[in-house]
Amino acid sequence: MTCRESKEFRHQKVEAMTHEERLNYAKKMNAAGMGMIVAGFGTFGGMCGGLWGSIGAGAIGAGFGAASGLWFGSCGPFQAAKETLEWDKEIEEGNREAV
Fold this sequence. Notes:
mainly alpha; 4 helices
């Protein structure tokens, strides 16, 4: 079982979209990645602030551990946006050559 659809499936999905839909999808994926980063900072700050009184400087490690999933997980939406824009460029160039 994979975490993500195959590259061919994703490419077909992107090809089925219009140019504007592809740009909107990439914009949404970028926003999702940024949201995950911001949520990670909130988690980090909340964990550090909440645990500092009880475990001291170890709260930094706990905060990083809690937030790292969000920070590293944001790579997925950013990669999807990058991939979509690259494929959009290829598709648009192919459409121009066909005309």
